[in-house]
Write a structure and sequence with these properties.
By secondary structure, the chain is of the alpha/beta class. The chain contains 6 helices and 9 strands, in the order αββαβββαβαβαββα. Strands 3-6-7-8-9 form a 5-stranded mixed β-sheet. It has a two-stranded parallel ribbon with strand order 1-2. The protein starts with a helix and ends with a helix. The structure holds cytidine-5'-monophosphate (C5P). The site of cytidine-5'-monophosphate has 14 residues, from α3 and β6.
């Protein structure tokens, strides 16, 4: 979905910085690509580039846990089960939502298997995003199609029915771009009034 959104944004003549984990996809032509392989690398890259963006769209399925220890040597096979200790990764979306005076529009994704809208609305508030794109994980994963609900902070919801990800991405880019422009215009009006 991230690559489809990057492509749609480039088509609409936006500048795109794409921070990507390991994927087997062609880089959309014109995107500035930053490749990462761990959640910590993605955390650092996102924080490094966020302030240069008008809209930050976080749709990577970042692992929630990472190994507590990394062995420098091969772990030998032994008899019986093996347990790995896992520690939580840092939540990138949440950390951006907590940034004071952020200027960029913050968009998160929520793939849910049940109570999709309720869970997504809760995530929108908890992670302090401007928009959450919710989808049923059973529909969107490993598929070229998806259907989504777009939740806004004022409680409004827009739905896009099942469509190829490419088409969906174009719609999402239009919606984000319109929302970002409106927000920018409102801020400018407020500044003009104050002056
Ligand atoms: O809480 P959950 O993982 O379902 O939230 C999904 C959203 O949070 C997505 O936008 C995903 O990119 C983001 N996320 C993140 N960092 C994590 C885990 C999820 O930014 N470590």
């Amino acid at each position: 979905m991230g690559y489809a959104i990057a492509e749609a944004a480039l088509e609409a003549e936006h500048e795109v910085t794409l921070i990507s984990g390991p994927v087997n996809l062609e880089t959309p032509r014109g995107a500035k690509l930053f490749c990462v392989s761990t959640s910590d690398e993605m955390f650092n890259a996102v924080h490094q580039h966020a302030d240069n963006c008008d809209v930050c769209i976080l749709c990577a399925a970042v692992a929630d846990y990472k190994p507590a220890k990394i062995s420098q040597v091969k772990i030998k096979k032994r008899v019986g089960n093996v347990s790995l200790e896992l520690t939580p990764t840092r939540d990138i979306l949440d950390s951006l939502g907590r940034r004071q005076n952020r200027k960029f529009l913050l968009v998160g994704f929520a793939a849910e298997t049940n109570d999709v809208e309720e869970n997504a609305a809760q995530k929108l508030r908890a992670k302090n995003c401007d928009i959450i794109v919710a989808n049923d994980a059973r529909v969107g994963m490993e598929s070229d199609e998806n259907e989504v609900g777009i939740l806004f902070r004022d409680g409004a919801i827009r739905k896009i029915s099942r469509a190829p990800k490419k088409i969906l991405a174009r719609e999402l880019v239009k919606i984000f771009s319109k929302f970002a422009t409106k927000r920018f215009d409102k801020k400018n009006e407020a500044i003009t009034e104050r002056n």
